[in-house]
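Hi support team,

I've been running sequence recovery on a batch of backbones for a student project. Most finish fine, but this one hangs at about 90% for roughly twenty minutes before it completes. I'm not sure whether the input is malformed or the queue is just slow. I've pasted the structure tokens below so you can try to reproduce it. Let me know if you need the job ID as well.

Thanks,
M.K.
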């Protein structure tokens, strides 16, 4: 079986690369997917595809809806959803993705630093595991797939 793992959340650190490297090194049958992680491309996709908006609200609205086509589809297809919350920015979209995944009954793993534990207590309560490092996520994937620690 090939496992589909959706990686949601902050885009300013290398956590996705570290998970990808760990999955590859462990030889796990995993396909990793995510939203478009290039900030400018994600923000401007509506204007680039459907034409420019003069009002920032409508520019963001259009981009969010186009991005949602990808995000919803990939979360719905995922076996496991990993949501990373970082310190630098508020990730409202990550919280939304976690809630959407939980509502769909997806296996949810959160990933965040110790300092965010209290702020994310409700999100962590919906998760099946809460990790501090990408390497812990890989270890959970290995255990889930192979049954070994």
């Amino acid at each position: 079986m090939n496992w589909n793992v959706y990686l949601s959340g902050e885009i300013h650190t290398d956590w996705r690369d570290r998970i990808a490297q760990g999955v590859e090194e462990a030889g796990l049958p995993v396909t990793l997917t995510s939203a478009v992680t290039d900030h400018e491309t994600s923000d401007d996709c509506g204007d680039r595809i459907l034409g420019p908006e003069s009002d920032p609200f409508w520019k963001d609205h259009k981009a969010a809806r186009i991005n949602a086509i990808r995000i919803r589809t990939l979360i719905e297809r995922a076996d496991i959803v990993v949501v990373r919350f970082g310190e630098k920015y508020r990730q409202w979209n990550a919280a939304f993705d976690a809630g959407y995944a939980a509502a769909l009954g997806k296996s949810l793993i959160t990933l965040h630093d110790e300092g965010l534990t209290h702020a994310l207590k409700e999100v962590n309560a919906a998760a099946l595991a809460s990790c501090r490092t990408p390497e812990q996520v890989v270890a959970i994937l290995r255990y889930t797939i192979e049954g070994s620690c």
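--
Follow-up from support: It reproduced on our side and the slowdown came from queue contention, not your input. The first strand starts at residue 3 and ends at 9. No action needed from you.
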